[in-house]
Design brief:
The protein has 85 residues and is mainly alpha-helical. It has 2 domains: 1-31; 33-85. The protein has 3 helices and no strands. The longest helix has 33 residues, at 52-84. The termini are far apart.
């Protein structure tokens, strides 16, 4: 009976240690002095200085305009099909 208790205690301890080890990995990725939030801020600042942000914003506006044109064309095609019936 003592042997069973010992085995259960060891199994519980190993399970707890494994659970703690598995749960700690995502947090350890950003365990630096500046942290990941600072990396994001620096990346945004670098994008503004290099002009990539303005370039990406221009491309995004072009995509929005193209989407709206496609949406209008699809709606017109649907109206034409409905009128033809």
């Amino acid at each position: 009976m003592d042997r069973d208790r010992f085995i259960r205690a060891v199994a519980a301890a190993l399970g707890a240690a494994l659970g703690l080890a598995v749960g700690s990995h995502p947090a350890s990725a950003c365990n630096r002095t500046a942290g990941c939030a600072m990396d994001v801020l620096e990346e945004g600042h670098d994008m503004m200085k290099s002009g990539r942000m303005a370039e990406n914003m221009r491309a995004a506006q072009e995509n929005i305009a193209a989407f709206k044109r496609q949406q209008a064309a699809d709606e017109a095609a649907m109206r034409a099909r409905s009128a033809a019936k």
